[in-house]
What does this fold into?
Amino acid sequence: MKLITAIIKPFKLDEVRAALADIGIQGLTITEVKGFGRQKGHTELYRGAEYVIDFLPKIKLESAIPDNMVELAIETICQAGTTGKIGDGKIFITELEQVIRIRTGESGEAAL
It folds into this structure.
């Protein structure tokens, strides 16, 4: 089992969620976050004054999935989440040691 963590642009959330649902990934956790990568933010002009925006709004999407769906999930997130411009985000894959469903006590892939 793996934990996929994807950082995407906020306006791409609905597309990515729908695409993941289409391939059978059901459970997602979404968090509104702020951050920056190589672009180090950007500057904006407001009422004649220039402001530096260091942290840009992003969406952090997390999903625990079986090993056999990892590559498909990565491809799906990349296709649905891309704009082709800087700041599209990143995907992190983490090994999950154990998953337990609190309500039933199921563990492993049965708990996903």
Residues 4 and 107 are 18 Å apart (CA to CA). The two ends are 9 Å apart (CA to CA).
